[in-house]
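A reminder from the course coordinator: this example appears on the midterm review sheet, so study it carefully.

Given structure:
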């Protein structure tokens, strides 16, 4: 027996073949969906986007610089001022005319009224994690509410934004999914969440002193790909340098999707090289069909093919998000299957982020046992997959899109009752 053979023989066989006899398998259908109003309620997957009631006022962040110039000109204002106005907005994070002292006093107010109307107003701000996390609930012009979360980490400050009010993707573990989609956000409504966070964070709103907002993740309410056009416009405002936009690094901006394959492919062609995150949560169609309803349309194989092609087109390593749910998707054989599916397409192109859930006694959507989580992570790592367990900040904020808004809404309902 060769030395190397002995070594591999000694390696623990962590992976049982597919569902071993007696292995517990909790199914997403074992309980009504999160936030369901009746026990038999089943939200339906819908790609329809409702028409908004009324149009959001025109805003600088909906337009590129040329569009802003044209808008100023149409209003009888000097087009060249669009540059200065944009710099105030994107580099000083302000929409207050009084702070724009380099603009002619007689025109400031009018310019701000034309291109910087108030689009989002704060309903509530909740601080968590010793002031390193701030969750905001915003009200939009038509009374619709969305959330964003600002988080300070050691090496970065991240904002999680909403791209839609509600969501039509109907994931059974997500309370936003049970609301259905109310409407898409405009590009400026997305960008305003970022502008506000960048300003607050620069002004020292998070504990630890002033910080530069470095990362933006589209993991709040909604499926960004359903709001493709406005999300792409918002991405331009985020990564294009001033005066076009904030000039964030493209790799620090993450678009997260449950798997709208044709739009992943389209995003790969936009030439922006933002990071793509895929909320996979299951490597087998059998479970994913139940867990992520959109899987009925695009299967795991097609989704991973598109994600791999995204990597090839942009050079950006794709994040695979995987919420670990006790006895549902946390089996070691699933970790091995996930690793095999990733490795089959190439090496080093994907990074897996297992997301520990909060313990929720009595719910099927609860955290894995520590040993099970460890075995899942070890299986991936032994197969050569870079794996980082997410820091959940005590509230699942970063990875569980949409759940936060409901948490805030529920708390709000509780306090206003
Ligand atoms: S998990 Fe994300 S995609 Fe699924 S319903 Fe919730 S917000 Fe929509």
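Designed residues:
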């Amino acid at each position: 027996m060769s030395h190397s053979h002995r070594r591999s023989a000694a390696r623990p066989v962590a992976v049982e073949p597919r569902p071993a006899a007696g292995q517990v398998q909790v199914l997403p259908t074992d309980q009504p969906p999160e936030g369901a109003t009746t026990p038999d309620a089943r939200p339906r997957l819908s790609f329809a986007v409702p028409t908004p009631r009324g149009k959001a006022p025109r805003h600088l962040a909906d337009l590129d610089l040329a569009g802003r110039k044209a808008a100023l000109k149409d209003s009888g204002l000097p087009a060249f001022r669009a540059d200065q106005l944009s710099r105030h907005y994107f580099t000083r994070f302000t929409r207050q005319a009084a702070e724009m002292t380099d603009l002619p006093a007689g025109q400031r107010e009018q310019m701000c009224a034309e291109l910087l109307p108030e689009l989002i107003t704060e309903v509530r701000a909740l601080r968590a994690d010793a002031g390193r996390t701030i969750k905001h609930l915003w009200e939009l012009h038509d009374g619709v509410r969305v959330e964003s979360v600002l988080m300070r980490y050691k090496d970065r400050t991240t904002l999680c934004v909403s791209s839609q009010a509600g969501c039509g993707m109907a994931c059974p573990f997500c309370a936003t999914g049970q609301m259905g989609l109310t409407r898409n956000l405009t590009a400026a409504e997305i960008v305003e969440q970022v502008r506000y966070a960048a300003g607050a964070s620069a002004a020292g709103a998070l504990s630890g002193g002033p910080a530069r907002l470095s990362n933006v993740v589209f993991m709040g309410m909604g499926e960004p790909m359903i709001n493709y056009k406005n999300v792409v416009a918002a991405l331009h405002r985020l990564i294009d340098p001033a005066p076009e936009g904030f000039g964030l690094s493209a790799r620090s901006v993450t678009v997260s999707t449950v798997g709208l394959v044709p739009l992943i492919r389209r995003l790969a062609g936009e030439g922006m090289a933002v990071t793509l995150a895929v909320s996979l949560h299951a490597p087998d169609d059998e479970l994913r069909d139940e867990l992520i309803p959109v899987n009925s349309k695009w299967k795991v194989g097609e989704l991973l093919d598109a994600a791999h092609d995204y990597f090839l087109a942009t050079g950006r390593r794709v994040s695979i998000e995987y919420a670990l749910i006790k006895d549902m998707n946390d089996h070691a054989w699933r970790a091995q299957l996930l690793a095999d599916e990733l490795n089959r397409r190439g090496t080093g192109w994907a990074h897996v982020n297992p997301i520990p859930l909060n313990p929720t006694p009595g719910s099927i959507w609860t955290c894995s046992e520590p040993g099970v989580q460890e075995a899942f992570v070890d299986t991936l790592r032994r197969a050569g997959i870079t794996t980082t367990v997410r820091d959940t900040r005590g509230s699942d904020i970063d990875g569980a899109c949409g759940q936060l808004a409901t948490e805030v809404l529920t708390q709000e309902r509780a306090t206003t009752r």
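The mean pLDDT is 89. Residues 167, 169-171, 174, 176-177, 221-223, 258, 401-402 surround iron/sulfur cluster (CB under 6 Å).
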